[in-house]
Design goal:
The chain is an all-alpha fold and 164 residues long. The chain has helices spanning 9-18, 22-38, 49-58, 62-80, 91-99, 107-131.
Length: 164
Amino acid sequence: MEFKTNRGLLKYLIFSFLTIGIYGLYIIHAAAKETDETCKEDGKNTKGLLLYILFSIITLGIYALIWSYNIVERWAKFIRNRNQTPRLNGGGMYIIWLILGSFIGIGPLVAQYLFLHTWNDVNEIHNKELTHPQVEVKPIEVKEQPQIVDAEVIEPEEGNSEGE
């Protein structure tokens, strides 16, 4: 299944405003589902929207940060495994922009921009792999043949023994 690769900050902000935040919840739901599909090789499972909302309320928003950190970590690893450089080097960079960037005002916007575009990058790579699957090359097992090596035995010279 191909995923969207054109998510942007402006659309996110406008739709979130018009829907009083419901679009933001949809983004969380879609990110969880798509990440589980695109990054399934890591064997992890991203918790969905219901648990996101519940745990975020219980932990006063800390769970939302942990959830975002983990999903960005999965994306960064996915991209690095394909020998590419992710826009967000990991969850820590996202959290820094989100929290510390708040002191300069635009940090949360930069964080969300990077979040959406890193997600687009993951989906783009996934879509390319669907249309042009890589052929897995299995190494040929080569059995080593025992080798006979001629070795010359060197006798110690007389008078040169270490015990003297």
